[in-house]
Predict the structure.
Amino acid sequence: MADHLSSALTVAIIGGIVDLDSTATWQFMISQPIVAAPLTGLFLGMSLGDARAGLKLGLMVGTILQLVWIEKLPLGMNVPPDAALASVLSVALGFLAGHQYETYVEREVCNTVALLFSVALGLFGRSLDILNRRWNSAIDRWVSKGMVAGKTDTISIGHSLGGVLSFTKAFLFCFLIAWLGVEPLRFFTKSLNFVYSSGFIVIQGLLPAIGFAVLASMCIQSKPELKAVIAGIVIFTILPASIWLIFPAACTIGWWFSRSTDVST
Amino acid sequence: MQVAFRSFFLQASWNFRGMMNMGFLYSLKPALDMIYPDSPERQAAYKRHLDYFNTNPYMSSIVMGVILSLEERLKKGEITEDIIRDTKEGLMTACAAVGDGLFWDSWRPFVAAAALVLAFGNYLFTPLLFLAFYNIPHLYFRFQGIFWGYRLGTDVIRLLRRFQIQRIRLALRYATLTLLCYLIPNHVNLHTPFLLTNLPLEYYYFGEKVVQGISATALVALAALAYRSKIDVLMISFLLMVCALVLYHWGILI
């Protein structure tokens, strides 16, 4: 466990910073899984001498988690699952537990198990986030009382305290999970029969379908749009498509059809 | 400028009572200190802005700019406190609707879908591109919003109308759908051993692509139906995992 101490500290610092970005500060979207997971993979990979492998794992995890939670947004009172912490911990656990395995299948199974476990951690992270916001409500009451008493400094202190609490919550959570969770995960993965457990790799390949379904539900709003999407899928199934052609095609289609649609309705 | 920088920390103390109220006051504090050098007036302004506040964080700087211009007019005695309260309430709602629709509902899914196209292609610089593209309009609104709000006051709404945000949202939605049409048949990995044994080798590549395209579309359609029936995403994922493991065990999926 002592081996993981420095790695756990790295993970905790990344987790704290990334979690601050998710709601509390900046909102540059470093907290989006597609960024948070590769960032964690890069730093852990550098510390263990395999930055490329870490980055690749981060990208894989980030892609899946981005898709699974694409529609979860912190709007108004709504507190979504903590996708940022889930991304950081998924890569941390998968990489730290899996990098000692020799075969591809063993590593991939370990990564997939870490990914599934981190989804549950994301839900737990949501509960911590709600608790954090309740503490902030207590701080708000304290600041209001201070204002009535003429202590105007309470606003700066109270507001900063909210940010510190948010960072500390994520830091401690990530530290404990990354420090104590690696060995149990490795033990669990070892206990799986690797011949059958490569079914986990099949799961990895299918999970993007969930995110695509959510994205399609968000974007398709009429029957003609549904028909157009089906036609598009048929075209992209049959034709080989370069990804560098997709972007100009998407922008042109977006621009062209929005021009010819009456948006006042 | 200091207000714009402080607005990055708007939600540090987000709470269920006043939501972004502390962050809003914290951001405005340096400007309020300048407008009201006398302590009693300043304290009254502080209390005024410790009320409930909630809007889209990227558009908050517009509200801040308008409120600062109104605070200056209040100091000169041109308007009353009630006008500031009412304007703040109306503007934060309008900015929330515009900002949430533009950034959360349209821009973020579009940039995320574009990033996913690159990520599936194993481009390691994808996160950097995502950050760079996503933050261009974010930073533009964040910094420019203060000046728009301050200079134009409540006329800022007319300026926002000129952006044709509804049309931009529509264009982004169609562009996202186009990316989705590419992603679905190419990046849901469904492989079955039956094609290997039943198809001649020269047709194998095309056959595999067609089967994958059809089954991926069917899977996405099923998941979308489940999602529209209000089944939670995590429950759908769990069901998919169980089905995948069973089909793998039976040798239908590899």
User: Anything to note?
Assistant: Chain B touches chain A through 104 residues (CB under 8 Å). The CA atoms of residues 44 and 76 of chain B lie 15 Å apart. The mean pLDDT of chain B is 92.
